[in-house]
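Onboarding guide, step 5: your first structure request.
Type a short instruction followed by the sequence, for example:

Predict the 3D structure of this protein.
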Amino acid sequence: MKVLVTGAGGFIGSTLLAMLRQRGEVGGVRIAQLAALDRQFPGTLDDVLTIQGDLQDAAVRADIADFGADLCFHLAALPGGAAEADPALSRRVNLDATLDLFDLLSRPRAGQARAPVVVYASTIAVYGSPLPDPVTPHSPTRPALAYGAHKLACEILLADATRRGLLDGRSLRLPGIVARPRGPSGLASAFMSELLHALAAGEHFSCPVGAQATAWWMSARCCAENLIHGAVMDPSRDPDGAQARVWQLPVLRLAMQELVAALAELLEVDARALVSYAPQEAIEAVFGRYPVLDDGVARRLGFRDDGSVQQLIRNALALS
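The system replies with structure tokens like these:
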């Protein structure tokens, strides 16, 4: 099996790539060749075919076509805050380049036994803000940002390519993933990761949402596990979602004070001294009022959350 990971130099992509390299297989099928695509990589990848550049580049598209992936994890994207600041760039990266990738992957190849599997990293931003309460597999999608609108369009067109037998698409709507590396990320939700990093370093953190604000949480390790499971699970086990080919992943729904208390216990720090709350209505309205999620279908299909707030923290901060 030939496997391609786009956005492989990013936070989730690098986690997924490391997991694939370590395992050497997906669903019991050996990875014969692993390719990683991104604009740049943090280090050398001796056992991986690296494709460096933008998806819009003709040379990059030619390399993708030559590689002939049997399975593609598509994570490359312009993140939400940056996409909203430049909708035209978001269209080129998150919509046009993604559709070009789908077209490249769907081209017939000699000896091809089945349509390539595409696991597409979508987003809960397709639901808009405020989120429906509760969020169910049948909740309406009303994206309020360019990022969500472009992701939703790609979900629909990937499902259509699947209907036509060109691809075997599986769109997964990712929640906030932690703990992203410190530094500018273009994500309005970056404070969720910064909280973990700050307390791990014993630093003060001013939280832009209140103590009782609720959010959905998942570690990068758990996210990568779910992406891999998305490639091998049987979509026909979900009669309602099999046609749309889109699933919301299970999450831990936690209030900020629950997470802070668990961090204080695990890291043995004084949370009261380190964490203050200075709610900003614009941020809390989007990232602090997450409703209950009906994730029963996704769980029956084999998708999972981190298991507990303690395990979420261990996974996110790579604690033993």
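Each response can be followed by summary notes, for example: The two ends are 32 Å apart (CA to CA).
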